[in-house]
Amino acid sequence: VAHILFKWILKGLILSFLLKTTLPLNPDDPNVCSHWESYAVTVQESYAHPFDQIYYTRCTDILNWFKCTRHRISYKTAYRRGLRTMYRRRSQCCPGYYESGDYCIPLCTEECVHGRCVSPDTCHCEPGWGGTDCSSG
Fold it and tell me: Which residues pair with 125 in a beta bridge?
């Protein structure tokens, strides 16, 4: 029974992780900050590959039946793998906020006892309460 319960808990953790990583942050949230990040992509690229092309011309060489060998550099299209740097915009919660679903929620290092956290380390106290953590009555 314990191993079945463990499997269900593990599946739930994996599912919540996948949901958390697939939900994008709301771009309209003023507490979302973004930055550009680079990443490498493997691409197939073509290039002109040089090779020695042998051809024959008429000439005065009797021993070779009036045929002389000549060389010229020619090019053919070849392919190779290459790395290309791409850029994408990454969104994350601004400093002092943490991710909850697709929003960024303010983080108060001390719990707001009789109030709520409205911005990083700032509590909005219920009427009749005060102090940095709303614990003074």
Answer: 115
Query: For 65, phi and psi rounded to 5 degrees?
Result: 55, 40
| Nearest one of 57, 79, 76, 74 to 66, comparing CA atoms | 57
Q: CB count, 10 Å around CB of 94?
A: 14
Q: How far apart are CA 112 and CA 133, in angstroms?
A: 5
Please, where are the H alpha helices in the chain? 2-22
Per DSSP, what are the bridge partners of residue 88?
Answer: 37
Interatomic CA distance for residues 121 and 133, integer angstroms = 9
Q: Dig out the tokens for 108 from the structure.
A: 């108060």
Q: Is the pTM of this model over 0.90?
A: no
CB 74 within 8 A of CB 50: yes
- pLDDT-derived band at 7 (thresholds 50, 70, 90) equals low
Tokens of residue 75, six digits: 């090019």
Report pLDDT digits (tens) over 99-135: 988 889 999 999 999 999 999 999 999 999 999 999 9
**For residue 86, which of 22, 46, 45, 36 has the smallest C-alpha distance?**
36
CA–CA separation, 6 and 22 (whole Å): 24
